[in-house]
Amino acid sequence: MNYLHRLVTLLLFIIIAGHSHAQSLLNKQVNIDIKGKKVTEALKIISRQGNFYFSYNSNIIRRDTAVNLSIRNKTVRQVLDMLFDGMYDYSESGNHIIIESTANQYWYATGYVADATTGEKLPYASVYERRQFVSTMTNEQGYFKLKLKDRQAAANLYISKSWYHDTMIICKANYNTELSVVLASQAFELDSFVVTQHTGVERNWFGRLFLSSRQRMQSINLSKYFVNKPYQGSVLPGLSTQGKLSTQVVNKFSFNLLGGYTAGVNGFELGGLFNIVKKDVRYAQVAGLFNLAGGALDGFQIAGLHNNILDTATGVQVAGISNYAKGKVIGSQVSGIYNHSSGNVRGVQVGGVASFAKDGVDGGQIAGVFNYTNKKTDGVQVAGVANSVIGELDGVQVSGVANHVNKDADGVQVAGVANSTFGVMTGVQVSGVFNFAKDVRGMQIGLINIADTSSGMSIGFINFIWKGYHKLTISTNEAMNVNAAIKLGNKKLYNILFAGLNAGSFQQVFGLGYGLGYERKISKRFSISPEISMQYLHLGDWEASNWLYKGQVNLNYKLHKFIAITGGPSYNFYNTNQTSFQQAFRKDLRTSGIAPTQHDRNWYSWIGWNVGLTFF
User: Which helix (H) or strand (E) holds 26?
Assistant: First the structure.
């Protein structure tokens, strides 16, 4: 594919370079002062001064005709027009100027275009005849020569150049003459301009690469002149059945062997390598490498590498590498690597690597690596690595690693590692490791859940609510006389991380545990807290397995804003396989509390109690 790209660039360079070289030969200035000499002698003098050769059919030129010419600082083209009275056409091949007869076929309008105020000659002004559909441009010296086909009708010549007023001149039929045209500069009020980063396909990277400077200037000069035609064919931009005015034609059918440059498509366009369209594309555009349109798409684009729309895309874009729409997308973008919309996407983006929608998505984004929207997303994002919404989410995010919403989220976030919502979360966050939301009004499920405020529920190993439930409880119970528990979360559901020990020279017990609980307010000072927990107990043998499972109901009485008395009954299940005990450790834990019961060899139960103080 890279080889094809280089080949096409090389072909364009050769054609443009050859074209520029031909212009340089015909635009060389010469001085001629001959009297009564033959035409062939005059041609020799001109060729010696210009350092080139003439090629022509000796049967079409009267070689013995005597001519008188006294000319200073005129171009070769001007001298030949004076010498042959405009009855011949000229082309270039290598270091030769080829003279060809156009007798009884064409006639010419020639002349100069200048600035009306300064008199300075204007290069790259467009000169065209609408009815005959022919055009040319002035050269660097402001000179033009327009070949006209109809010898029976007068020609209406239009002269256009950016920043100047258009002018129209009527030329008599079959009458070769040199015109002098002046253009008045056009004044603009400063507040009438809206400066934008892109102004069309001529400023696009692909346009600059594949279009010559003359083609881009012609397009700018004739920005208000467009016609409709049934079809066109081209080899490359500028080599078209519609000639130099192909850039001003909207075609129903367009076929480009390598590439083409037209005004628009209102049917179907096929390009072997690329298609460049100044305005809108309707219905279908297919290219081997890329499609570029300066207007809107209404239909579908298919390209081997890239599709580029500089306005709204309504329909489908399919590309091997990437799709781009400067406006919104109403439909679908499907690419092997990347999709981009500078507006809103109301449909689906499917990218092998990434998809981007600046103004949000109302539909879906699917990417192998990353999805991103800059505003509200109402739909689904699915990515292999990450999803990001800078606005609001009203839908679903699913990723292998992380999901992010910069504002409110009303929906579901599912991630292998982490979810984050910097606004209100009224849906569900599910992650393998970490969830964060500024305000949880729904649910968080993960190993670690963090929020600023929460009226919902967080389920995980650690739940931390900055403006939520933070309490420290110091208590004693029938198994261990000193216990410390940290409770984090909110009143609907909080985590308990605790450690305990039984102090005594022959009754030692050490314990670590984890639990869940919630607090329900009964009155201004009273509340009730059901809790469940599990803890590992060490009784002197690290190889032994001692697990205590507890369910308890605490009654809390608030003494002060930051201090409460807590206590209540518990029911305990104890599983142990330890059979030998060291002297300093407690041995009768299996018979603790009230109504101790042995259920089998390793399982025991009893009714217990706890009492303590809760701070904060």
Answer: helix 2-26
- Is 528:518 a contact under the CB 8 Å cutoff? no
The DSSP output letter for 187 is P
The domains of the chain are located at: 18-101, 107-183, 469-615
Choices 2.40.128.270, 3.20.20.140, 2.40.40.20, 2.60.40.4130: CATH for 107-183 = 2.60.40.4130
Residue 23: name the closest of 95, 92, 113, 114 by CA. Answer: 92
pTM above 0.70, yes or no: no
Q: Which of 373, 440, 371, 353 is nearest to 420 (CA)?
A: 440
Q: DSSP for 491-558?
A: TTEEEEEEEEEE-STT-BEEEEEEEEE--EE-SSSEEEEEEEEEEEEESS-TTS-EEEEEEEEEEEEE
pLDDT higher than threshold 70 for residue 5:
no
Strands 364-367 and 107-115: unpaired
DSSP E strand stretches across 94-215: 96-101, 107-115, 126-129, 134-137, 143-148, 155-160, 167-171, 177-183
Give, for 604, the enclosing helix (H) or strand (E): strand 603-615
244 φ, ψ to 5°?
-75, -15
- Contact between 281 and 264 (Cβ < 8 Å): yes
Domain 18-101 has CATH 3.40.50.620: no
Q: Does residue 8 carry a pLDDT above 80?
A: no
Decide if 107-183 and 469-615 have a common fold.
no
| DSSP conformational letter for 186 | P
CATH of 469-615, one of 1.10.10.60, 2.40.160.20, 3.10.420.10, 2.40.50.90: 2.40.160.20
Q: Would you place residue 215 in the very low, low, confident or very high pLDDT band (cuts 50, 70, 90)?
A: low
pLDDT surpasses 70 at 594? yes
**What is the C-alpha separation between 180 and 112, in angstroms, rounded?**
5
Tokens of 98: 């080829």
**Could you tell me the two tokens for 552?**
């308890």
CA distance 61 to 27: 22
Check whether 11 has a pLDDT greater than 50.
Answer: no
Higher pLDDT, 277 or 66: 277
